[in-house]
Amino acid sequence: MAYPRGASSASPSVNPPATSGEDARAGLVAVYLRESTREQLDGYGLDAQRRATSDERTRRGWVLYHEYVDAGFSGTSMRRRASLRQLLADAERGCFGTVLVHKLDRLARNLGDAVRILELLRAHGVSLVSLGEGLDMTSPFAPVIVAVLFALAESYSRNLGTEVRKGQREVHEAGRWIGAVPFGYVLAEPGTRGSHLALGPDVAYARFVYELAATGRYPATTIAHIVNTYRAEGRLPTAGEGDRYGRR
After folding, report:
1. 221 and 137 in one domain?
2. CA dist., res. 200 & res. 206, Å (int)
3. Is 166 helix (H, G, I), strand (E, B) or coil?
4. What's the pLDDT at 90?
5. Domain identity same for 15 and 43
6. Residues 15 and 137 reside in one and the same domain
7. Nearest residue to 69 via CA among 54, 87, 44
């Protein structure tokens, strides 16, 4: 199942057990999947995580309680990840006995969040299994190893953000553009990252927008209406027309 950017899936796949006892939930597993927008582009997506966790469930004979999915979200914060929060709430309710993830950094890239997640799971008797690191929290040494791995994940995430910002700054200093192309311009070298901008076919309308805004008489919605009316009528504004329009 594909989830759009920013989507979450957090409704249970099976009814919660009638009791929160160990026997009732021992064979129930919650699977957590997450991908960021960058990972969607890099191919490290939900399908690969889903296949790996499904194979592990089959191998161990676990019954899926629910697959919690946060698509298009970074792992640096828990705040916007509704499915992760729902998973933790269900763990408190005793809905399952194990949480299964493809890799630990699916849960968090922030050491503080990671510690809170691990403490909550441990407090409610829920084990954590991560395939990528081959870790099972039932091992007495696993908490120490997990803490180190989460710290490394946080360091990697911070370094990645620094490198991305540095790359963007270098592109901008070279006079190139990254991001959505402003109205009235086109990419001079389409298909390349960090292209120069060139004047496009709507440049006259873009100039008209600036001139209308400079009069200080019109809010953005009114300017949009004026310019769209000109475009719909096929009227091409001339230089200085926005200033003359504003003095009517």
Report:
1. no
2. 10
3. helix
4. 96
5. yes
6. yes
7. 87
Helix (H) or strand (E) run with residue 108 in it: none
Is there a domain that residue 187 lies in? yes
State CA 17 to chain mean position distance.
32
Question: For residue 142, what pLDDT band results from cuts at 50, 70 and 90?
Answer: low
Instruction: State how far the Cα of 47 lies from the Cα of 33, in Å rounded to an integer.
Output: 9
Q: Exposed (0-12), middle (13-18) or buried (19+): which is 62, by Cβ within 10 Å?
A: buried
Model's pTM, two decimal places? 0.53
HSE-up of 219 (CA within 13 Å, CB side)?
1
> Measured between alpha carbons, how far is residue 238 from residues 156, 170, 208 in Å?
52, 36, 8
- The answer to which of 120-129, 146-155, 178-187 has the lowest mean pLDDT is 146-155
Give the residue carrying structure tokens 């705040």.
Answer: 79
Q: Examine residue 2 and state whether it is found in any structural domain, yes or no.
A: no
Tokens of 1: 């199942």
- The pLDDT confidence band at residue 16, using thresholds 50, 70 and 90, is very low
pLDDT, averaged across the chain: 78
Same domain, 110 and 54: yes
Task: Flag whether 164 is in a domain.
Answer: no
The answer to whether the beta carbons of residues 33 and 57 sit under 8 Å apart is no
Residue 63 structural domain: 7-158
Closest CA to 210 of 243, 234, 233, 248: 243
